[in-house]
Amino acid sequence: xILIALNHFFVSKYHLKTAIVFLLFLFESVxxxxxxxxxxxxxxxxxxxxxxxxxxxxxxxxxxxxxxGSGGGSINKVTTSNPLGTSDTYIxxxxxxxxxxxxxxPIIASTSGTTFYSRFKILFGDVSAGSTATSGDWYAFLGDxxxxxxxxxxxxxxxxxxxxxxxGAGGDITFNNRNGSAWSQTGINSTFTTxxxxxxxxxEIIGNNKSSGIESYTYNEISQxxxxxxxxxxxxGVQVGNDVAKAQLPNNNPIKSNMFYGESSTSNVANIFLDxxxxxxxxxxxxQRLSDPSTFDLATANFSFTNWPATSRIGxxxxxxxxxxxxxxxxxxxxxxxxxxxxxxxxxxxxQSRINGLDANGFSFLNTNPxxxxxxxxxxxxxxxxxxxxxxxxxxxSWLAARQSDNGNRxxxxxxxxIGNSGSYTDLPGVLSAIEFxxxxxxxxxxxxxxxxxxxxxxxxxxxxxxxxWTNSGSGARDEIRIDDIxxxxxxxLPIITSTTPGxxxxxxxxxxxxxxxxxxINWYANLTGGSSLGTGTSFLTPSISLNTTYYVDATSGANTxxxxxxxxxxxxxxxxxxxxSPP
Length: 584
What we know:
Oligomer: single chain
Number of domains: 3
Distance between the termini: 86 Å
């Protein structure tokens, strides 16, 4: 489960840019006091009464509480059929049928602060994470006081941030925040005032309860700030509330607890699915949601991508790839727009901007109006592939592109590359029609093989991306474009001896020689040609010698060996002699 404010990173190797952000945040987590509630690894159900031990205690700081109201409901620790895409145990909680609340307090009395960062992953729905539940309220609260560990509802005076999720017809979830002493939608982006059942949401709340002084932070490389007595709200990496007014917790009172409770659900139909709840008693200076893919080592095999299931879990990506997206201030993204965060939505959506899994037909990009923020915004998308090309040359890229849906407003997908994981991308070699698909044609079109520049060879990291953007032609709904059958091939580079270190000795003895190679294993020989290897590695200790002697090295990588062998000399110097002694 995710234990830090960085996005889940589904890679086996962190790259430098991400590692720096990770270490900064990890340091802050330890120094400032972060508690994490991942609900452990066990299963079980609470169907009556209350308990301070049913939920495991969070890491580092705090306790827990759970309670079932008189109107039924339950709190369930579950490990199977996880709609959140998290690992191990998650919570499925069922609301009470009356005003006697079913309550979950994952973190109580953590290390307190007047500023804070909190995050949780949640899905609203029926018992099967579907959209048939049409009655009931679920709430989320952050603050401090007895309400977090008792059997009652909320107290405004103990609440800094309060969120209400009301189940309605068609699976719609009406979203309100506690603004002072009333429920309101003031300060919440109108696109997000109605949420959907069966959809994963990743909430982040960044709060400031000081009496003076704004708090600054960076979110996805964009400078942000939160004013006193307000909070910023993000859902799935999108800022949906900026300086949202708090509830009634007095100024300078600490925030150190959170809770969720459900009530008033006819026949107990309103469920929430909850996991990875975090609380930190200060605001991280850097919150980063843009990750790099792990690199595929071309020395092991050729790369291929041919399938991305529509049922792939939220936050997962094809091997050695990652999907990014970003928000643009106009309806349609252009090539210069920048992706700012990982794509963390499902892969089977039928509405809003999305990247969908098409099973054996790969994946598709589609921007819609409105986008995920407002009717004046759109969303760009990209797929990024990571490659390790050490020892590899003649690297060739091919893929298939096609128009998945013809809606009239034309888009492109262009292939680009860069060395490393920072800086601008460069178009793949070739004329534009050889690297870019335009949705004015239906396709499919096969691209490549396109040979990468020599500068991409023998690199620890090369990234290739397919970026989706507007062509500035057509009108109406946007065209959907799919990408499939990505193949990367390469051949082994002939290894090269890149440096040698000769040796010297006085009179006689053994000498240590050295050599380095571009790749492969270094072999040491007594002769320029033929003969058996005397040893391998970057250093070689000669036998005892008394005369100048030349040894030879080559490097072997797979079936390839450098040629000719490179000479490495040893020089034997005569000891100094006393020629004469002058009398005093």
